[in-house]
Design the sequence.
């Protein structure tokens, strides 16, 4: 057997083995087995450097009983990093996939949050938010209206929540 033929057989044998391994890894990634979001299911992001979402919770009941009281509630723990006091004015859930927009709702008590302090916001949802049964997550997009107490200027920030079901 010539050296070139041996080298070619070696490359073909291991080339097929590598191709099979890459195909298997691609299939696992495609079906979500290797999805890193499965290991880090909860996330809350506000598109603002001044506000930080420390924690979130989405209470969720996909198929409630007819006569049982149930609620789908979003809870956000917001931290003020603006350097000045801000007033949390209004909050609403915005359209996301099949989830219809809600009207603006006042944050109860329209609290003034000092720099570095936190405040918990709760909002009832009209219906169940979008749900990914494979990953056991719900998705909620929201808007938060904030008033700078020093300048009285109003800012609207958008945010996203991906939360595991509670």
Sequence:
């Amino acid at each position: 057997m010539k050296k070139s033929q041996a080298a070619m057989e070696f490359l073909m044998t291991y080339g097929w083995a590598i191709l099979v391994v890459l195909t298997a890894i691609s299939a696992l990634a495609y079906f979500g087995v290797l999805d890193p979001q499965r290991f880090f299911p909860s996330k809350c992001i506000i598109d603002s450097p001044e506000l930080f979402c420390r924690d979130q919770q989405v209470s969720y009941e996909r198929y409630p009983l007819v006569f049982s009281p149930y609620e789908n509630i979003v809870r956000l723990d917001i931290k003020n990093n603006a350097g000045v006091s801000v007033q949390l004015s209004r909050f609403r859930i915005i359209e996301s996939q099949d989830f219809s927009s809600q009207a603006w709702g006042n944050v109860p008590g329209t609290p003034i949050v000092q720099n570095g302090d936190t405040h918990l916001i709760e909002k009832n949802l009209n219906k169940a938010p979008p749900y990914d049964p494979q990953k056991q997550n719900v998705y909620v997009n929201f808007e938060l209206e904030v008033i700078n107490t020093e300048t009285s200027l109003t800012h609207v920030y958008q945010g996203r929540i991906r939360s595991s079901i509670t």
Observations:
- The helical segments are 3-30.
- The mean pLDDT is 79.
